[in-house]
Write a structure and sequence with these properties.
The complex is a heterotrimer. Chain A has helices at about 5, 10-25, 30-55, 75-80, 85-115, 120-130, 135-150, 155-160, 165-180, 180-190, 195-205, 210-225, 225-230, 240-250, 255-290. By secondary structure, chain A is mostly helical. Chain A has 2 domains: about 5-55, no CATH class; about 80-290, MetI-like (MetI-like fold), CATH 1.10.3720.10. Chain A is globular. Chain A starts with a helix and ends with a helix. Chain B contains 13 helices and no strands. Chain B has helices at about 1-25, 40-45, 50-80, 85-100, 100-115, 120-125, 140-165, 170-180, 185-195, 195-210, 215-220, 240-250, 255-285. The two termini of chain B are about 35 Å apart. Chain C is α+β, with helices and mostly antiparallel strands. Chain C has 2 domains: about 30-145 and about 305-375, 3-Layer(aba) Sandwich (D-Maltodextrin-Binding Protein, domain 2); about 145-305 and about 385-425, 3-Layer(aba) Sandwich (D-Maltodextrin-Binding Protein, domain 2), CATH 3.40.190.10. Chain C has 18 helices and 16 strands. The radius of gyration of chain C is 24 Å and the shape is globular. The chains are: A mainly alpha, B mainly alpha, C alpha+beta. At the A-B interface, helix 1, helix 2, helix 3, helix 5 and helix 6 of A face helix 1, helix 3, helix 4, helix 5 and helix 6 of B.
Chain lengths: ~290, ~280, ~425
């Protein structure tokens, strides 16, 4: 919790000035109070979600946060009656494969565009950048038609394909790769590495923070993606977590809020646990990509 | 390099061209005949009250969420920056909604908003206020959804604003303080101008994502035997993307739906171009 | 140098292609046909068992059974048309049939196997809802009708006789008012599970209107006549008054009307025979009964809404697939399958002889539905989704915006007429 103070950077430079203002600053209590009220707004929906997911019967509609007779029944019913674990697995596979693919291809393309000279380079860069302007909404109907013809509807491959390389990722990696000094790469070339080796052994190492940031963004984006998956997925066994959760809550759960909240909890809690471990990296990564673009 | 290029041509460029093509046809997925109709779909669009309802709603989503996100984001970020303790903790907690699944939090909020037995109404009643329809009232549904959008996006805004604030050299502020400027003057004269690129970036990002609002509406107001339609009671929450989705995948009017995607594309293009203009000017300055 | 680069891309490409699922194996000498229906647990399970029986009888035929969630079913079927990858035999809501026929997706039933005379003699008259352009485009295994469900415990609690459900709409309104519980404007218990998107939609069109003296449609189904007589306005007003003036129920209460009833929070609801399965499994804690729909006055006009899901042949079924599909269709509409369907799914047989079975008529649960079948009307929908939505919107205008019911009905008829004009143009 103390790392925040260190990171502002003010303390090191102007420690004395800062200390002086702190004494004067009598508003700190009010500031913390406002922030804490804000936190209550941020957190309450999750608390209520958890509370409902452990309730049963008439208590579901009760106003008490702590269930009087907490029960695991909603969770066990959910796991028994739905393919929840399958949806989890699907989401994990989709998010991991797309992330791996993007890291590989985006960084490779970014490296080539930033550091290699070949004919048509600027045209290729233009083409890729221009696709940033095309919103996904415009593509879903053509994708649906194309994928129907190819037989990729209702497959995980169909879910993943449109995201395997992203223009944003290529753009981001090009930005970072151009920041690498050419001398370093030349030195590696003189040492006998081929271009693949230079990219793999030298360039990638130097943009590690950017890679990590991209990985976080892509993983989160795919883990939570809804628009395209809900169109391309048909059967229960192919559903990703958001699609499964949406269809289950809107249909099969039959307005039983305790089940819906249990399903939502299962979708949210593991992500929060991962976030708790990597929160600093995640937050910094997001800030990094935000600044670069 | 060939593979990524082919990928972009096949998965982005070609489908985009196909979308333009489809928008010029009467393309009902259930019939084999797909006559070329020129701009008929666009003409029909101009006279379609539901399209205008969706467009107006989408405008309101942007007009409500973007300023609210910016104002709250900047306020929270400034507060966090100005306290000396627990900065990391605050930042982390405000960020939680952003990383959680939109579908999941939409259902959580649907339950909070639930008219008969939802916690918000129970709290209102407990303090002696009348219960509200929230999502089931045509007058409140759109605001209720916009509030959730702001709630979820706030954390991201805070992170980016904090990064922006940290890049402002503290000496600027100290100098102003010595000159006798008060906190508001410092904020108005120093912080805000220096944050301009950040604000523009976040405004554009927020605008584009609000223009594309979909999952929240689909999960908060669709379904339920009372409402039937995807866009809430009397289409009060219908957005352009939800309308596109329902036209294309519920009513199978691919040509007509594509025409709306073309309109959406044009709007987003304009926003992006304006952004580039504004941003470039800022950076030169 | 460059080679290495190429090897990597080729490998990556191969790896990604590996993820594409291979085509499913096709067995020689057997005909495989696909059957699609939406997912409903008891329907899907029973169909799996029936297919096993059918395959035993016809070893040369393999039936692949695919189900989809109800919300997506229409979409999935429709989208499979241009792809040519859809089912050979498909289960469709009868109200969707005109759209599919118009799209050239279904083929008419072969006259030599399913002669119109045989159909008219042996099946319930309701099935002529799928007689389009003089041809039959499919036949159901089962039909459904509506009935009034009531919660005996809540009747008792309100001082009403738990064994005397309302016989007239006036009684229904009285009882509903007595059993509605409110607190500070919050509904705690519904006297009647009022809804517009569920079965009440049909109750208004085929039951209330007829009992208020209005024929809902012209004989050729081209004109919407709901506001053609004062009775139409009165019926609509009476119906919406239940929700606005008497406030006996809200469409969104507990999520939906059936959930409200199952949770014991609604004293009465109108639902179809297809709800019996859910009720039997989920409403164990409540003591419910079921009876025929109320009438306007004692000995007044009785009416009901009948509906069904037809099994149709798609244009995909050609050559030997068509032969196999016809065999399967005959099997699905056979008396044996209908009997099985009744016991396992709870839907009523579509054959007249079975529907008139004396034992069944006396059954306390199936009886009221079978009685209703005798005077049931099936609405001829041209676009069921849009027509239902228009009705929901009209009630929302009245319920949520306070629009005058008369104005709302006029607008509604206009909207419904527009849908029909689009179809009959």
């Amino acid at each position: 919790m103390a790392e925040g103070a260190v990171k502002t950077g003010n303390v090191d430079n102007d420690g004395k000035v800062r200390a002086a203002t702190r004494v004067k600053d009598r508003t700190w209590l009010l500031k913390h109070a406002i922030l804490l009220v804000g936190i209550l707004f941020m957190i309450f929906p999750f608390l209520w979600m958890l509370a409902t997911s452990f309730k049963q019967g008439a208590e579901v509609y009760g106003i008490n946060l702590i269930p009087r007779e907490p029960t695991w029944a909603n969770f066990t019913n959910l796991l028994k009656d739905t393919d929840y674990l399958r949806w989890y697995l699907n989401s994990t596979v989709v998010a991991m494969v797309v992330t791996a693919s993007e890291l590989f291809f985006d960084s490779m393309a970014g490296y080539a565009l930033a550091k290699l000279r070949f004919p048509g380079r600027s045209i290729i860069l233009m083409v890729i950048l221009s696709t940033l302007m095309i919103p996904t909404e415009m593509l879903i109907i053509p994708w649906y038609m194309m994928f129907t013809k190819a037989g990729w509807i209702d497959t995980l491959w169909g879910v993943m394909l449109p995201g395997l390389i992203s223009a944003f990722g290529v753009f981001l990696m090009t930005q970072f790769m151009s920041g690498i000094p050419g001398d370093l790469l030349d030195a590696a070339r003189i040492d006998g590495l081929n271009e693949f080796g230079v990219w793999w052994h030298v360039a990638l190492r130097l943009v590690k923070p950017a890679l990590a940031a991209l990985a976080i963004l892509v993983f989160l984006g795919n883990w939570n993606a809804f628009l395209w998956p809900v169109i391309v997925i048909e059967s229960s066994a192919t559903r990703t977590l958001p699609v499964g959760l949406s269809l289950f809550s809107g249909g099969e759960a039959g307005s039983e809020w305790q089940l819906i909240m249990a399903a939502a909890s299962l979708a949210v809690i593991p992500v929060l646990m991962v976030f708790a471990f990597f929160q600093r990296q995640i937050v910094q990564g997001i800030a990094l990509t935000g600044m670069k673009s | 390099m060939a593979l990524p290029l082919l990928f972009f041509l096949g998965v982005r460029i070609y489908p985009a061209l196909l979308a333009f093509n489809v928008s010029l046809h009467e393309w009902d997925i259930m019939s084999r005949a797909r006559p070329f109709v020129g701009l008929d779909n666009f003409r029909q669009l101009a006279a379609d009250p539901v399209f205008w309802k969706a467009a107006t709603n989408t405008f309101w989503y942007v007009a409500i969420t973007v300023p609210a996100e910016l104002a709250l984001g900047l306020a929270v970020a400034s507060l966090i920056q100005s306290v000396n303790k627990f900065q990391g903790f605050y930042r982390t907690v405000y960020f939680i909604p952003y990383i959680t699944s939109t579908v999941a939090v939409s259902w959580v909020w649907r339950w909070l908003y639930f008219k008969n037995g939802g916690i918000l109404n129970q709290l209102l009643l407990a303090v002696g206020l009348p219960a509200q329809p929230f999502l089931s009232g045509p007058a409140q549904a759109l605001y209720s959804i916009a509030a959730v959008v702001v709630w979820q996006a706030l954390g991201y805004q805070v992170i980016i604003f904090l990064a922006g604030l940290e890049m402002i050299p503290p000496t600027f502020k100290e100098a102003a303080k010595i000159d006798g400027a008060n906190a508001w003057q410092i904020f108005r004269r120093i912080t805000l101008p220096l944050l301009n690129p950040t604000i523009v970036f976040l405004a554009v990002l927020g605008t584009i994502s609000s223009l594309q609002i979909f999952a929240q509406i689909m999960n908060m107001t669709s379904g339920g035997s009372g409402q039937g339609d995807l866009g809430g009671p009397l289409n009060s929450t219908l957005s352009l993307v939800v309308y596109i989705y329902s036209l294309a995948f519920y009513k199978f009017k691919m040509g007509y739906a594509s025409a709306i995607t073309v309109v959406l594309f044009a709007v987003i293009l304009v926003v992006t171009l304006v952004q580039m203009k504004v941003l470039n000017r800022r950076i030169e300055y | 140098m460059r080679k290495r680069w190429q090897v990597v891309t080729v490998l990556a490409l191969a790896a990604t292609l590996f993820l594409v699922p291979g085509a499913s194996g096709v067995f020689a000498k057997q005909v495989t046909i696909e059957y699609w229906q939406y997912y409903y647990e008891s329907k899907a399970k029973t169909m799996d068992e029936l297919i096993k029986i059918f395959e035993k009888q016809n070893p040369e035929i393999v039936v692949e059974h695919k189900t989809f969630p109800y919300e997506q079913f229409n979409q999935k079927v429709a989208i499979s048309v241009p792809a040519g990858k859809g089912p050979d035999v498909v289960n469709l809501y009868y109200g969707w049939a005109p759209k599919y026929v118009e799209a050239g997706y279904l083929q008419p039933l072969p006259v030599d196997e399913f002669s119109p005379r045989m159909i008219e003699n042996e099946f319930l008259p309701m099935v002529d809802a799928v007689k389009l352009n003089g041809k039959y485009w499919g036949l159901p295994t089962a039909v459904r009708a509506l009935a009034l469900f009531w919660n005996k415990d809540l009747f008792k609690e309100a001082g009403l006789d738990p064994n005397k459900p309302p016989r007239t709409w006036e009684q229904l309104q009285d009882y509903a008012v007595k059993m509605t519980k409110q607190d500070k404007g919050q509904l705690l218990q519904e006297g009647y599970a009022w809804n517009a998107g569920g079965q009440d939609n049909h109750v208004f069109v085929q039951v209330l209107l007829r009992q208020w003296g209005v024929n809902p449609f012209s004989p050729d189904n081209k004109k919407v006549l709901w506001n053609s007589k004062p009775g139409g306005y009165e019926a609509f007003e009476w119906w919406t008054n239940l929700a606005t003036r008497y406030k006996v129920g809200e469409p969104e209460f507990m999520g939906d009307y059936r959930t409200a009833f199952i949770s014991g929070k609604a004293a009465m609801m109108i639902d179809g025979s297809f709800a019996l399965g859910t009720l039997k499994s989920k409403a164990k804690d409540i003591n419910w009964g079921v009876t025929t729909l109320p009438v306007r006055e004692a000995n007044g006009v009785k009416s009901n809404f009948g509906s069904f899901w037809l099994n149709g042949l798609t244009v995909n079924a050609r050559g030997e697939k068509r032969e196999a599909a016809i065999k399967f269709l005959k099997f699905l509409t056979s008396p044996e399958v209908m009997k099985r369907w009744l016991t396992d799914v709870g839907e009523l047989p579509a054959r007249q002889a079975l529907a008139e079975d004396a034992d069944l008529q006396k059954d306390p649960i199936y009886g009221p539905f079978l009685a209703g079948l005798k005077y049931a009307h099936a609405t001829f929908f041209v676009d069921e989704t849009s027509e239902r939505q228009a009705l929901i919107d009209a009630t929302n205008e009245v319920l949520l915006k306070g629009t005058n019911p008369r104005t709302a009905l006029d607008q509604l008829v206009q909207a419904e007429q527009k849908v029909r004009d689009g179809y009959f143009k």
